[in-house]
Protein: Amino acid ABC transporter permease
Amino acid sequence: MDLLTMLSRTFFDFASMKEVLPQLLATGLVNTLIISLAATLLGTLLGLLLALMGISPSRWLRLPARLYTDLFRGLPSILTILLIGQGLARFSYQLFGPTPYPLGIFALSLIASAYMGEIFRAGIQSVERGQMEACRALGMSYGRAMRQVVIPQGIRRVLPAIVNQFIAIIKDSSLVYLLGLMTGQRELFRVGQDAAVLTGNLSPLMLAGLFYLIITVPLTHAVNVIDVRYRTGRRRLTAPQSGLKEVEEVLKRPEGALAAQPLTGNRGQS
Structure:
């Protein structure tokens, strides 16, 4: 058996891919999107709160935000998921039953919020100070100026970084399988891994990886387009106009019209 044939049978066995495709679509893809979207939403809300605490003039707000950010950015994601998933398992079982999804989403939210907080803080602080001063001069309160002027501009400036963090959450969602998943709770990675173990072939995992690429790569290019649109604005192409148009209008006036106007003005002044 030559090398190409071996690689083809190991990674590109289309029969194995076809067999696992329905499970990847119906179970893995749905659960991956649920975990990622829920963790991103919670992480965004917590991250915005951390950003506001981080730029607060009060040390009692800045210090907890700094400690939180350093903690969850410094720990490996897999360790955070295991600590949260196993440490709070009994409490979660009483509220949600045997599903590990709430704890997995909570752990990913804590990780994402630490990064989101730094992203939002950088975006808000990049807004010129004159924006706030102008809002206060117009009689706006600090909170209203932040909500309506400063924060929207800061979020728009860091939109690519926010989407990149969402992509990271999608990939980190594969670590939730460490908490134990039932058949209907498996995400993309777990479905592909189980199929690879049963068939002794890595083609199902390759197909799972393809699904991750289908989700993340278009997001990356879409946010680049949005970022360029925000930075440059919408440009409407118009035909160039020549300055000779005004000259033609002057030449079309009746003779003596230009001379009559100054005379009338002088008479009025006299």
Observations:
- The radius of gyration is 30 Å.
